[in-house]
Here is the input.
Amino acid sequence: MSIKEIKIKDLQISPLNVRSILKDDIDELSENINQHGLLNPLTVVYNQKSNKYEIIAGQRRYLAIKKLNHPTILCNVVDKSDQDCIFISIVENVQRNTMKLSDKVKMYQKLHNNFNYDSEEMSKKINISSKTIKQYLKLSSLSDKILDRLDEPINSSKKISLEFAVHLVSLPITDD
Here is the structure.
């Protein structure tokens, strides 16, 4: 790993990044960075095909810096496989409560479906219980519309709890 100042125009968000972004998050973070500076560099991997650095961890920081029109940003440059990059992105985000539940569900599903990781393997790499990962994997069968309702504000009438979503998955589906 090396630390390098990289031009904003030479960066792109990796398709392996596990977090989706809300505009409000970026506005607040931009203000914070403008006031206090960037506290943590991005983690990126070089993509030879595109001749760009792909952001594995730090997508929100990148968007905030870009909004502030900074020409460069400090980055940790790593040389990792796609699987390793997904785990870096997960570890960076999953321990934070601010990561959307729907993003967690999609991330675990991607690891399971695309890379054949089971809940035990994911649990060891991410330090999240296998039981929790299994719960998220069950939820991956729900539609995006329902998953998005997990992320609604608590006082919203559209909000559904994680427990309720788990019950939805276990309901028998009939064609009646």
Q: What stands out?
A: Residues 14 and 54 are 5 Å apart (CA to CA). The radius of gyration is 18 Å.
